[in-house]
């Protein structure tokens, strides 16, 4: 059980989420949590009236508005900087939480020593378990696998970006999300850095949340580019040489060959465009790696 109820700041990157964010906010304000909850939303260049909707219908939500789309990592960091809570809960605008989710996240965080992040049980709109795996195969990129003990508290290699719970002081000490990611890879990267400092990423099945995956149904060339850009950048930043020697040939030779047979020409275009982008920006990526891993081990 929760020993005390620390304050929680829920940070939400919003991009054309007018039709979904209301359900998320209802689930947040319906929590059976006795501590203070604040909500900070960053409108990341929406064109559907998201900001006007939030101002009119949810005046208690603190709103940050970007004129142009910056990406999830900058949007989350901007919200986190404005937060006042002891903990930060990063989520998405198309998520809803079970009424006991916040209690379960805090309880899990306080249940063990050296915890860096807690995350919960993600279900899709059909109530099916939707986490692809708890561990990461770096030879395939940040490829999730291992679904053992999904009904128990267990350690993970990463935390789902739709439910990433972390102490604000720790988040600040590790410099938050890496803003070099657009909207794919930042949660894997943050969890990787947490684990590099000897801290745990814990999953609890009691913190249930639902993700509608509205934006993943019909990916276009830009969202595919963002996906491959993030995946390749993550590997250049965090992968070992032996990982890259297998990952790069698979991604650049084997996978495109498969896409040809599947008729996914747009995927090939996005993949190679992302690879070229990463080559051009490799010095920046490596500089970010050196800067991030040069900080002292955070104390918690």
From TrEMBL:
Classification via CDD domains: GT_2_like_c (cd04186)
Pfam families: Glycos_transf_2 (PF00535)
Entry keyword annotation includes Transmembrane: yes
Transmembrane feature ranges: 241-259
Keywords in alphabetical order: Glycosyltransferase, Membrane, Transferase, Transmembrane, Transmembrane helix
The organism's place on the tree of life at top rank: Bacteria
Residue ranges occupied by any Glycosyltransferase 2-like domain in the UniProt entry: 9-173
Gene Ontology molecular function terms on file: glycosyltransferase activity
Keyword Glycosyltransferase assigned: yes
PANTHER family: GALACTOFURANOSYLTRANSFERASE GLFT2, RHAMNOSYLTRANSFERASE WBBL
The family this protein is said to belong to: Belongs to the glycosyltransferase 2 family.
Protein name, UniProt field: Glycosyltransferase 2-like domain-containing protein
